[in-house]
Design brief:
Layout lengths: L3 H12 L4 H16 L12 E5 L4 H10 L8 E3 L6 E6 L5 E6 L3 H8 L6 H11 L2 H4 E5 L16 E3 L6 E3 L4 E3 L2 E3 L11
Helix pairs in contact: 1-2, 1-3, 2-3, 2-5, 4-5
Length: 190
């Protein structure tokens, strides 16, 4: 695994700027990986699955450190609005959930009271705070279905209404018809 400083440089380049969320994501991923026994995410790439709970800066950093990607089906997005991620070793079944502590913001301000603003205090503090002051970590059990694992689709059907393809059991039964979620009225564009 790279060092925090190495990931900070890469994250700023990849994400376009450096912010407290990026630091949280980097450290969250580093802690999560170590907690499930993965020291090198490059070597363990095919056995790692990550669930992120927010669509903010921290997620880009988690993806950078873990190598997990939506397109590879190794990064899963759960829209919970929380700065948290769950790291799963598919080989051993070990899994941990790492969540940023809300009180870390106040601790950051207390650590750097002369910082011009809270954002800069967080940026500085999140690099040096102890893990237990920054995160809550818990061992979890993640139950996975075969169709949710990385790799090629297991099943593909056509929507009975729009005829677009639907992968891996994401269809919805409405009466006697199998529909995509959009045709079933669950679209984000309605």
């Amino acid at each position: 695994m790279k060092t925090l400083d190495e990931y900070v440089v890469l994250a700023a380049q990849s994400h376009g700027h450096m912010c407290p969320g990026q630091i949280l994501g980097i450290r969250m991923a580093m802690l999560g990986l170590r907690s499930i026994g993965i020291d090198d995410p490059v070597v363990a790439r095919k056995r790692l699955l990550t669930f992120v709970e927010i669509d903010r800066c921290a997620t880009d950093a988690v993806s950078l450190v873990t190598g997990c990607r939506l397109g590879k089906r190794s990064l899963k997005f759960l829209d919970f609005g929380k700065v948290a991620a769950t790291f799963v070793d598919l080989e051993t079944g070990r899994a941990v959930r790492v969540a940023a502590r809300d009180d870390s913001r106040a601790k950051a301000r207390a650590m750097f009271p002369n910082a011009p603003d809270a954002h800069l205090a967080q940026l500085a503090a999140y690099k040096v705070m102890e893990n237990h002051d920054l995160f809550d970590l818990q061992t979890v059990h993640v139950k996975l279905k075969p169709e949710d694992l990385p790799g090629r689709p297991h099943v593909r059907i056509a929507c009975a209404q729009c005829e677009e393809g639907i992968n891996d059991g994401r269809e919805v039964r409405v009466g006697d018809r199998l529909l995509c979620r959009s045709c079933a009225g669950k679209s984000t564009t309605n």
